[in-house]
Design brief:
This protein has 241 residues and is mainly β. The protein is built from 2 helices and 21 strands. Strand 13 and strand 14 form a beta hairpin. The chain binds zinc ion.
Length: 241
């Protein structure tokens, strides 16, 4: 057995527990419960700055301090979405009006992908695309939801695609280990109304912003191969051709 210090970040209190040298997440939780210390469902434990995974066994013989973090506050403000910071782009040929697949119609600018879960919908259980007419779209403000183009029911947006446009993605990804939002990209002021003369960046008030561009012919869809992430902020900006 080893003695462990559990430091509760929120209250600043430290609890002492005894557990086996080799222990799991549930062993620690059980030891805490034995001392009548209740922790919230969404809390996480960290050892040496890393999150203790539920399904792994850890050796605590050399590490006597564990941090208890209530991650609810920041993470719960975010949405779960395709981790577009890690994904590659799938280039898709766009066909003229595919009859019978109206729910897969795309348009220049932002296009959101999701699965319509309405069994009575023509596109029920199928992948659907919502065309976003706005040039700037904040998906976190929409709680990560989109609308089925057929039945107009709300469903979760899984990924995004762009067509015939310059585009920019700005956001803050939730970093679980450090409990903070990590910024990626930059928000471009009035991106939809600026004249773009360079395909790689724009210059606004002497600030350089990196931009992306579809190739004009193909549809650019962010693949869903490297999993999801929690985004505290996620904004798509486009400047259509
Ligand atoms: Zn539908």
């Amino acid at each position: 057995m080893v003695d462990l210090d559990i430091y509760n970040e929120e209250s600043g209190k430290t609890y002492k527990i005894s557990i086996n040298k080799k222990a799991t997440f549930s062993d620690i939780i059980s030891a805490l419960l034995e001392k009548d210390i209740n922790i919230a469902d969404e809390s996480i434990l960290l050892t040496k700055g890393k999150k203790i995974e539920v399904d792994k066994t850890y050796d605590f013989s050399d590490n006597q301090k564990i941090t208890l973090r209530n991650r609810k506050s920041l993470e719960s403000c975010g949405i779960n979405f395709n981790d577009i910071t890690k994904q590659t782009i799938q280039k898709l040929k766009v066909r003229k009006k595919a009859k019978g697949y109206e729910w897969l119609t795309v348009s220049p600018g932002i296009n959101l992908f999701g699965i319509c879960e309405n069994k009575n919908c023509k596109a029920g259980n199928k992948e659907v695309i919502q065309i976003i007419n706005d040039c700037e779209y904040d998906l976190v403000k929409k709680r990560g939801l989109m609308e089925c183009p057929m039945c107009k029911n709300k469903c979760l947006a899984n990924t995004v695609g762009f067509y015939k446009c310059y585009y920019n993605i700005y956001g803050k990804k939730y970093d679980e280990e450090n409990n903070k939002g990590e910024t990626f990209g930059k928000l471009i002021p009035n991106f939809n109304s600026i004249d773009i003369i360079n395909d790689n960046y724009v210059l606004i008030d002497e600030q350089k912003y990196k931009i992306q561009k579809t190739d004009g012919e193909n549809f650019f869809k962010y693949e869903e191969t490297n999993g999801n992430a929690t985004f505290i902020e996620l904004i798509f900006q486009v400047n259509k051709f």
